[in-house]
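Hi all, posting the design record for the shared folder.

TITLE: backbone redesign
STEP: 1 of 1
STRUCTURE INPUT:
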């Protein structure tokens, strides 16, 4: 009798273990599916938060000229390569005035795959970047350039502050020749970036990809770029700061110091 009870209890225990294993496997499978499921229309993750968010701010106050298109695309492509699949890419414009709110193009980096839909999403992603580059080549020249205000506005945009499981980055592709009062580099005394508190870039890494301005290159000094990196790492509160002005022989590491 005792042996029968023991066998029954053992059978129930085995059944319970098998059921628990089945449920755990099903939960793990569903969790994995949700983490990788994408929306068919845009390729963005359907359920999980994006693994990273990158905001790209493109200076549209001058048309791309000379070597600028190549350097512009190289800066963008290197940032896209850093962005993990499923990450969100936000693209906004630096214009002649500080925007009250950003108008952002939202793209998701396609997941790797060779299926028809995966290839279509990858091609659509590349086509959008190509279209933005073509449009930049035709941008009319503007008399002003509100770089500082656009960075601050973009960093506080809800689209950039969405929940993410990974890093937030900001890429600024510009000549950094701020021309909006009171910070304008063209004013007497030169560039004047704010030194007050506020930390608009807190929690984000910012990278300055500096384009050579063929008209006012004399103002693009190492001191100018240092001023931007000091502002970003200091009062702006960036987690890390990077800068690259290859034509000037200038690079800055994540501590914001030029070398």
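Okay, here is what came back for every position:
SEQUENCE:
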């Amino acid at each position: 009798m005792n042996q029968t009870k023991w066998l029954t209890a053992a059978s129930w225990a085995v059944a319970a273990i098998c059921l628990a294993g089945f449920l755990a496997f099903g939960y793990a499978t569903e969790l994995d599916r949700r983490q990788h499921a994408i929306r068919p229309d845009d390729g963005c993750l359907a359920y999980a938060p994006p693994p990273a968010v990158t905001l790209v701010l493109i200076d549209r106050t001058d048309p791309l000229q000379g070597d600028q298109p190549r350097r512009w695309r190289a800066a963008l492509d290197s940032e896209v390569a850093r962005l993990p699949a499923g990450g969100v890419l936000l693209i906004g414009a630096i214009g002649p005035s500080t925007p009250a709110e950003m108008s952002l193009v939202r793209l998701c980096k396609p997941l790797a795959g060779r299926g028809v839909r995966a290839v279509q999403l990858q091609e659509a992603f590349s086509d959008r970047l190509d279209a933005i580059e073509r449009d930049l080549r035709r941008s009319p020249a503007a008399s002003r350039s509100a770089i500082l205000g656009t960075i601050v506005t973009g960093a506080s945009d809800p689209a950039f502050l969405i929940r993410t499981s990974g890093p937030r980055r900001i890429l600024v592709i510009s000549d950094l020749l701020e021309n909006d009062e009171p910070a304008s580099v063209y004013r007497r005394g030169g560039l004047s970036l704010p030194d007050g508190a506020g930390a608009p870039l807190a929690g984000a890494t910012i990278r300055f990809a500096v384009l050579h301005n063929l008209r006012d290159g004399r103002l693009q000094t190492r001191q100018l770029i240092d001023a931007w990196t000091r502002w970003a790492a200091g009062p702006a509160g960036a987690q890390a700061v990077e800068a690259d002005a290859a034509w000037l022989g200038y690079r800055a590491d994540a501590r914001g110091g030029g070398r």
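COMMENT: Confidence is low (pLDDT under 50) at residues 24-34.
Let me know if anyone wants the other runs.
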